[in-house]
Design goal:
nucleus, two-stranded antiparallel sheet, SANT/Myb, DNA-binding, 329 residues, 12 helices, mainly alpha
DNA sequence: AAACGAAACAACCGCAAACAA
DNA sequence: CTTGTTTGCGGTTGTTTCGTT
């Protein structure tokens, strides 16, 4: 017994909507409302799946939608809410009049996530990477550190690779301050091609993963403290640096009690080495949905979180005391 | 001007909750 | 209470647009 399809696949058009289709759908809904999406395409004379019509309406045609760029305050709201509820896009969109969950999701994935990563903040936990490292170092038995590092790097390797290679290409070749306020010098040989850089970074990551627990943790450094392989040396434990570079977002210090993950830690980790069973504690929580029984319980918890966050009128509570993300204007 | 890659946006898919009969 | 259907949601994929070489 399979699931009943929402429509006949054969006679259904897919892909981009034409203005005529938009008109048909809009005028039909204006007259008859949005009851029974399965019947709407048929009655409106559209060769579309009801689901497709619903999506088109809710994400694009609805008259109350905003279509412009996200404002600073909207971005702040998204980051703040995401730090509390995670990838609950509909919940977040509910606090942004005129924005859809798809809008918010796309904006997060294409802009905000990278923005945070670029500032050294883990977009999953909203903590600076330095704090994550420190937590791992202090709370985990040394023998597990290497495995956790591997899992973490697996989760973020693509983003790290992207950022590192991009940054490298952007830095000046004379090794002076790049002028972003970080005082971070970067020396790059002009003849060094990008592919070589990528290979070096990959090698560095691999070494970090392979490194036995208890050995020198100063990744990328040779015994004399000089960078090996020409890789940059970045202090990942410098909160002052973080505050300096955080011209838009500022981390005000850990707020999770006793190393507990935030309420939203079911956010996705799609890293290839993250298998859900092992890995970091967060990674374990992320995959709780995979178990049906646990999934029900997780959903129950989720609903409690929802109920706690929003009043009966759906208005967001004042979260300023609970949030770890503050904004500098 | 053309080719290529990255970013942004739009749409689809499958799952599960909610609802109605 | 059970079963079938609809709706909402989040993840993913496909397409278009923009910027760079």
């Amino acid at each position: 017994m399979g699931r009943i399809p929402c429509c006949e696949k054969d006679n259904v058009k897919r892909g981009q909507w034409t203005p005529e289709e938009d008109n048909k759908l809009s005028s039909y809904i204006a007259q008859h409302g949005t009851r029974n999406w399965r019947l709407i395409p048929k009655n409106a004379g559209l060769q579309r799946c009801g689901k497709s019509c619903r999506l088109r309406w809710t994400n694009y045609l609805r008259p109350d939608l905003k279509h412009g760029v996200f404002s600073d305050s909207e971005e702040q709201t998204i980051v703040k809410l995401h730090s509390v509820v995670g990838n609950r896009w509909s919940l977040i969109a509910g606090q942004l009049p005129g924005r859809t969950d798809n809008d918010v999701k796309n904006h997060w994935n294409t802009k905000l996530k990278k923005k945070l990563l670029g500032k050294g903040i883990d977009p999953v936990t909203h903590k600076p990477f330095s704090h994550l490292m420190a937590e791992i170092a202090t709370t985990v038995p040394p023998l597990q550190v290497a495995h956790l590092a591997e899992a973490a790097l697996g989760c973020f390797k693509d983003e790290m690779l992207h950022l590192l290679t991009k940054k490298r290409a952007d830095f000046p070749a004379n090794g002076t301050d790049v002028g972003d306020g970080t005082g971070f010098p970067y020396a790059m040989s002009p003849v060094e091609d990008k592919e070589e850089t990528v290979q070096k970074i990959k090698l560095g990551l691999s070494r970090a993963i392979m490194q036995e627990p208890g050995t020198d943790k100063s990744w990328g450094l040779m015994e004399n403290g000089e960078p090996s392989d020409g890789l940059p040396v970045v202090s990942m434990c410098d909160d002052d640096l973080y505050r300096t570079i955080g011209d838009e977002f500022r981390y005000e210090g850990p707020s999770y009690a006793n190393g507990e993950g935030s309420a939203w830690s079911q956010s996705m980790c799609t890293g290839s080495t993250c298998t859900g069973g092992g890995g970091t504690p967060d990674c374990h929580v992320l995959h709780e949905k995979h178990s049906d029984d646990e999934g029900v319980e997780a959903e129950g918890k989720r609903r409690k979180i929802d109920a706690g966050l929003f009043g009966s009128d759906g208005v967001l509570w004042d979260l300023s005391d609970d949030l770890m993300m503050n904004h500098i204007v």
